[in-house]
Each structure stands twice: as structure tokens, then as C-alpha cells.
Amino acid sequence: MIIYDENIIEELSAHFFSLLAKYESKKKLLLNNVDIKLLKRIIFKDEKVCYKIRDKYKSLYKKIDFSNIDFDNVDVREFDFTGTKGVKINPQKVYYKNLVRTKLYGVEITGSLDGCVVIGTDFTESIGAKLNPQTVYKKNLCDTKLSDVEIIGDFEDVYICGTDFTGSKGANINLQKIRNKTLFFTKLCDSVLIGNLDNVCTSYTDFDGCIFYDQFINKIKDDMKTYILKNNRK
């Protein structure tokens, strides 16, 4: 394998992106039959400890089909993947397992989120994400958008201020067991709430679209009693 020094890589990168800027096809550019390791150094900035998104060219990433390019050890913090194609990310292999404020639109999640930083992460339109609130970094889901995420754990001692549950699946929240009993700015659509709101901070909380489990069960019981009484009278 040919080893290129940093100066040559930077020249190749500048040339590649100058050509990419002129690429006008609606079809994303799929790069086959090339040295994938070299291509990764061209597309991302090799900082030795990790690969960095090239801010100067990040708007051009939307023209690339990333099917052949991995994101292992790439620093994806705060990057917006909206408009990209073919991106597959193993959260265990991105730099520092850190997805803070990353927008994962269209991204296929291929690994576990255990130990990952997902504060402010937007999972909207992502594929395959399964999240255990007990095992993410510091049990912190503050400002996280959980649309298209399957929840596979409980929320005991989990921080969910500003969390948006809209579009998520399997979120069963015991209100008396969340961290600090606080739902500040939380959007609870598509979640099931267990227990009562005694001493729970609900400032700016949006309850639209959620289900209060106890009330729901009681309503079912009442409806059943009403139905039985009506039929017994016939």
C-alpha cells in the first residue's frame, strides 16, 4: 500500500472536492474501485487521534453515496446528516462514542448505543436505533429527539428534560422514578406515563399524545363495567 504524506492528502482532498462541487447529477456519487482507506483520509481530515468532518466542504457531503465508507473513529458531533445517502454508523466505533447534537437523518444505526453520549441527538428518520436509557452515557437524554427509536429499557434515574418522545416506540415512564422528578420542556407524545404527578416538576411540559397508564386502565375497567351492566339489563 502506498503511504501518502499529509501535504499530498490535502492536495488530493482539495482537488477531489473541487471536482465534486462541479458534479451536478441528482444521483449520489458512489466511489468504487478505489483505496477506501485513502478515500477516507481525503473526505475526512486525519487528525491522528480521530477523523474530523471537513467543515470547509461539509455541504458537499450530500453529493456522496457513503455506502463504501465507514465512520469508525470519525468525530460526528453536531454534524447534520440530512441529505446524505448510504451512511451506516456503529455508535460504538465513532470517536469517543459521542453523538452529541448529531442529526442522524437517514442514517442506519448498526451497533449498540450503550455508553454513548446522546445528549441533544436527533434520531428523526434514522434506521434501526434501539436505546436503553439505563446504559447511555450518564443516563442523560436531555434535549434528545427519540423519533424512530425503539426504547428497550426503563427510565429510572434518567434525565429527560427537553427530551422529545414523539415518534418513539416503547417508552414507558414511571413519573416518580425519573431523575429529580423533572419533566422540564419534555414532549411526551407517544409515551406511556406510569404513576402520578405528585411533586413532579412539569414546567413547559407537553403532554399531548401521551397515555396515562393508570387513567387508561381505569377507563377500560369503567367501560367494561358499563358494558356488563347494560347487557345484564337486557
Number of DSSP helices?
A: 3
Proportion of residues in extended strands = 5-15%
**Average predicted local confidence, pLDDT:** 92
Helix content: 10-25%
Largest sheet: 3 strands, mixed
Q: How many beta strands in the DSSP annotation?
A: 12
What CATH architecture of the largest domain would you give? Answer: 3 Solenoid
Q: What is the distance, rounded to the nearest whole angstrom, between the alpha carbons of the first and last residues? A: 87 Å
Assign the CATH class of the largest domain.
Answer: Mainly Beta
Radius of gyration: 23 Å
What's the CATH topology label of the largest domain? Answer: Pectate Lyase C-like
Helix and strand sequence: HEHEEEEEEEEEEEH
- Poorly predicted runs are none
- Which geometry do the CA atoms define? elongated
How many discrete domains? 2
Which structural class do you get from the secondary structure elements?
Answer: alpha/beta
The strands making up the biggest β-sheet line up spatially as 2-3-5
Question: Which key terms come to mind for this protein?
Answer:
single chain; three-stranded mixed β-sheet; about 20% helix; alpha/beta; 12 strands; Pectate Lyase C-like; about 230 residues; three-stranded parallel β-sheet; 3 helices; 2 domains
